[in-house]
Write the structure tokens for this entry.
Amino acid sequence: MINNKKLLNQIFSIIFISVLVSVAYNQFRSEPLSLVKKKIQILTEVPSLDAMLLEPTITGIDINLAQTLFENNVIFIDARSEEYFNEGHIPNAICKDDFVSLVVQLENILGMDDPFVVYCSDDDCGSSEELSYELQSYGFNNIYLFKGGWKEWQNAGLPEEK
Amino acid sequence: MAECWFTRGKIVGKIYPYLELFCRIIIGGVFLWASVDKIIDPSKFSREISNYHIIPFGLENLIAIALPWLELMIGIGLILGFYINANTIIAGFLLVIFNVLVFQAMMRGFNIECGCGLKEGQMVGYGKLFENFILLLGCLFILKVKDRILYFKKNQ
């Protein structure tokens, strides 16, 4: 029968070796992941064009900036499923369940450096962030993430489309 | 030592070592399989962890880097028979944590991918809770069985 002290030693050894190997492996990856995640910065006013084009970015925006970009005819992408999209969405927003179809449509109407806004249902949904990173990996350089999403848009009484 | 219902019966008792090996292979296989995609793409796993909205201080990345390797170690250990008790206890502990995270996400109304690494697009829900619960029962069974086969005796 194994004693408790030996068992605890084994448990800590397994955990310690796993952490050590994982951190070492991460450092040797072509693109190592930072150990602490950087939070997406929330902007409240539109930056200059030069600043926007410096490097590929995903920038969080609040409801006021989302409204400003909407009024300036910036494209909105709805990261929810088409089922929810059809129940109501931001006017002229694009929604595709299939990522390839979405990218094809975006490439037809936007350049890689053109700005667009991605949103989903609300601050908790996560799919807008997921889609933003996928689009950034694909090559789009200027992505705005409206974290408040459809819920905040509706609550603000802004235009809707069905 | 008095016999309990678990150890009673010669015929049933002979099956336990094989059942224990079966459980080890299944649970080890699940952990091994779950770790692969996460090791290949830790940033995706980190985003899936973020969706739970419960990890503080930006620690999602550190968890996304380390947890898959721990799962890999557990998987290999259980299948090959290294440190069976220790690996089973860590596996059971992780399964309890996973279920707490899935349950809190469900209660907060999050319709998110579980980030389990087993199946693309698998969402949080009662199915996932049940799946983890069955694996947890398997872990308890492994810890209970003393007559084992195909394992490294020096490492127990």
